[in-house]
Amino acid sequence: TYQAENITAYSAGAEVTHIFTFGLYYNILQVTGSGLTLGLVLLMMRSRAKNLNAIGKVSIIPSLFGINEPLIFGAPIILNPFMFIPFVFGPLLITVLTYFAMTTGLIGMPIANPPGFLPPGVGAFLMTLDWRAVVFVFVSLIIMTLIYFPFFKAMESNELKKEKEKTA
How far is it, in rounded angstroms, from Cα 145 to Cα 79? Predict the structure, then answer.
């Protein structure tokens, strides 16, 4: 409903007022999947832990299209004490930043409803018709990577210890 109201308002030259639309969810708040996990996938691809490295490699292509189940269930993220804080609270931070960016005019409001599962930035541009939304998506992914990094390192250290115990 909000998306339709935004499209109607934009078409009529009126002010667009709704931020939280279905398109926003898929194209900014969940780009690369729940938890904005592309940075985590890239960290895993560079991991010294064989298990994490393999999961990262398998997860990269689906993650680019918003499908991160290989990561969610492969790492696993679910019930993983290392990933709880960044996976749950990182996206909340991005949601607050997105709200601030849209209410202050740093990026455009949702005025279209592109399909889900587009590569990072593509859906954000189609949804807002604002190139700054593309930049915002990549800044969000960098922020999420920085949030995941210390937790990933702890998880990687634990995995390396497990691998060392198996070979010993």
Answer: 20
